[in-house]
């Protein structure tokens, strides 16, 4: 099998990739996606149809961004992260189109929220992440959840407002009830034998 990490990036003819954006080796950018100025997408990523990656957003290696996900400015995504279709990462806690005097809001009139998604986390289809949140490594945000608080590592968050429903292994199958202590006292996932840490 050819090593994808050595391939030049593929960018579909209808995608818009700013000349100051960086796209890593082996990454595929599909139809109508947009990658804005100074954004960085790592190696071997999949940028699905209609995905928006805002100015200065940083995405690590081997991330999957499914169709129409919106990764607005202020976001950092570490390696091995799954972003489902139609996920929205917001960045403005007090969104207004105009100021009270009717003047248009400019960049000086609002504060950019900054969110980080840690290594190996997954965000399900249609989830919304409010500004200034951290989603811990290997956490799982369920489809349609609204993330209003930080998510600890390995936590499963469901609903609106999002609440912790349990914990999940890096393998994505083992749940809290599958974690058992070994004779040596180390908690391990019954499904993959990994320690959930
Ligand atoms: Zn496991």
Q: How would you sum up this structure, described in words?
A:
With 197 residues, the protein is mainly beta. The protein has no helices and 24 strands. The strands form four sheets. The protein has a nine-stranded mixed beta sheet with strand order 1-4-7-10-13-16-19-21-22, with no helix packed on it. The chain is globular. Bound molecules: zinc ion. The site of zinc ion has 8 residues, from loops.
Topology as a string of helices (H) and strands (E): EEEEEEEEEEEEEEEEEEEEEEEE
Shape summary: globular
Q: Give the biggest sheet.
A: 9 strands, mixed
Round the mean pLDDT to the nearest integer and report it.
94
Care to count the β-strands?
A: 24
The N- and C-terminal alpha carbons lie at a distance of: 32 Å
Percent helix among the residues? under 10%
Count of discrete domains: 1
CATH architecture: 3 Solenoid
Q: How would you name the CATH homologous superfamily?
A: Hexapeptide repeat proteins
Which structural class is indicated by helix and strand composition?
mainly beta
The stretches of 5 or more residues where confidence is low (pLDDT under 50) are: none
User: What is Rg?
Assistant: 18 Å
What's the gist of this structure?
With 197 residues, the protein is mainly beta. It has no helices and 24 strands. The two termini are 32 Å apart.
Please tag this protein with its features.
mainly beta; 9-stranded mixed β-sheet; UDP N-Acetylglucosamine Acyltransferase, domain 1; 197 residues; 7-stranded parallel β-sheet; binds zinc ion
Layout of SSEs?
Layout: E1 10-11, E2 16-17, E3 22-23, E4 28-29, E5 34-35, E6 40-41, E7 46-47, E8 52-53, E9 58-59, E10 64-65, E11 70-71, E12 75-77, E13 82-83, E14 88-89, E15 115-117, E16 122-123, E17 128-129, E18 134-135, E19 140-141, E20 146-147, E21 155-158, E22 163-167, E23 179-181, E24 187-189
Parallel strand pairs: 1-4, 2-5, 3-6, 4-7, 5-8, 6-9, 7-10, 8-11, 9-12, 10-13, 11-14, 12-15, 13-16, 14-17, 15-18, 16-19, 17-20, 19-21
Antiparallel strand pairs: 21-22, 23-24
This protein binds zinc ion (ZN).
């Amino acid at each position: 099998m050819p090593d994808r990490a050595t391939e030049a990036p593929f960018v579909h003819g209808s995608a818009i990739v700013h000349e100051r954006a960086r796209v890593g080796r082996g990454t595929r950018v599909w139809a109508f996606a947009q990658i804005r100025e100074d954004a960085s997408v790592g190696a071997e990523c999949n940028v699905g149809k209609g995905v928006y990656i805002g100015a200065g957003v940083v995405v690590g290696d081997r991330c999957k961004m499914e169709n129409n996900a919106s990764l607005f400015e202020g976001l950092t995504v570490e390696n091995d992260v799954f972003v489902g279709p139609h996920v929205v990462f917001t960045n403005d806690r007090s969104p207004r189109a105009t100021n009270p005097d009717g003047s248009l809001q400019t960049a000086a009139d609002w504060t950019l929220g900054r969110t980080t998604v840690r290594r190996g986390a997954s965000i399900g289809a249609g989830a919304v992440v409010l500004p200034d949140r951290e989603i811990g490594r290997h956490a799982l945000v369920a489809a349609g959840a609204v993330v209003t608080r930080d998510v600890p590592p390995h936590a499963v968050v469901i609903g609106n407002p999002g609440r912790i429903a349990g914990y999940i292994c890096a393998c994505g199958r083992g749940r809290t009830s599958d974690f058992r202590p070994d004779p040596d006292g180390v908690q391990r996932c019954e499904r993959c034998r990994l320690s959930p840490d």
